[in-house]
Amino acid sequence: MKHLVLLGGGYGGMRLMKRLLNASDLPSDVQITLIDKNPYHCLKTEYYALAAGTISDHHIRVPFPEHPQLHIKYGEITGMNLETKEIHLLDEEPISFDELVIGLGCEDKYHNVPGAAEFTHSIQSIDNSRDTYQTLNNLPHNGVVSVVGAGLSGVELASELHESRPDLKIKLFDRGPIILNGFKPRLSNYVQNWFIQRGVEVINNSNITRVEEGILYNHDTAIPSDAIVWTAGIQPNKLVRDLDVEKDPQGRVILANYHHLPENEHVFVVGDCASMPFSPSAQLAEEQAEHIAKVLLCRWKDEPMPKLDEIKLKGVMGSLGKKSGFGTMGSASLIGRVPRLLKSGILWLYKYQN
């Protein structure tokens, strides 16, 4: 019996299960165990909308697959021993593995800003997003919400919150000279002007120096806030950060060509914890999973390792509320209604296929 253990049912884990369990050549002696603390797959790309209150919880839950060769274990992972090939769970017996795929996702990165972890809200997990929604939903008229970080998550959260609670005063803090500075100027200008035209205050060239309860300090200037949401960076899950393996400057695990550890071909890393020449994304995790599925099937059948295609991402789509959006497709920048419709279609297709 060959035992594959998947840590985390995120985008990479879901795609890997789909490819393996639907494969006509999956060996009958392979057993797959998924370990996750949630009893369903969560659409993390939509956490911003859950926190803003424009969708309900059940809209971002997808059931895990069912298959005779799949066992799902719900629990909290406390550690990984790669030498003894064991996964340790809270108040449970260890689970052994022959092959391991680590897809534990990411956490907020606070960049050593004093008070940020204690006094800000998060949208990095479904539990965090639920708590953030409760706080934002209960704010009074004219309450001040400070969103720290104007990357994709911050932009989508601020725009969705504006539509959900137009009575709130929203401040969006961005370290760059303009929102989404890494994109083409046409797209960045469109997004920045979208907020300005709707009365959302954009604070460019910001530098958050510390956070206290109800107060955000930008360049040491105190800004009273009824709620502060942190979307200013991510880092790999702490379990991965604690692993004694080679990592890049961002703390992500450096991998060999087949997405496994250079020193251990039986341990793969997928998603936000993997060091890749792309920014972390659901799309990247799924592309990695496609590769890993091919590698595992060849290995289990004692066939030569496959030739893997180069990973090419299709683009990025972001929303500005329910009627507008932005994105990139190849070298083209998209703004307005079309990218918003494309994003909605991609989400619908993903849920339908899973």
TrEMBL record:
Gene Ontology biological process terms, A to Z: aerobic electron transport chain
UniProt cross-references to InterPro entries, sorted A to Z: FAD/NAD-bd_sf, FAD/NAD-binding_dom, NADH-Q_oxidoreductase
Molecular function GO terms recorded: NAD(P)H dehydrogenase (quinone) activity
A matching Pfam family: Pyr_redox_2
Membrane-traversing stretches: none
Coiled-coil features, chain-numbered ranges: none
Annotated keywords: FAD, Flavoprotein, Oxidoreductase
Cofactor(s) needed: FAD
Residues in FAD/NAD(P)-binding domain copies: 3-288
Classification via PANTHER family: 64 KDA MITOCHONDRIAL NADH DEHYDROGENASE (EUROFUNG), APOPTOSIS-INDUCING FACTOR 1
Stated family: Belongs to the NADH dehydrogenase family.
UniProt protein name: Putative NADH dehydrogenase
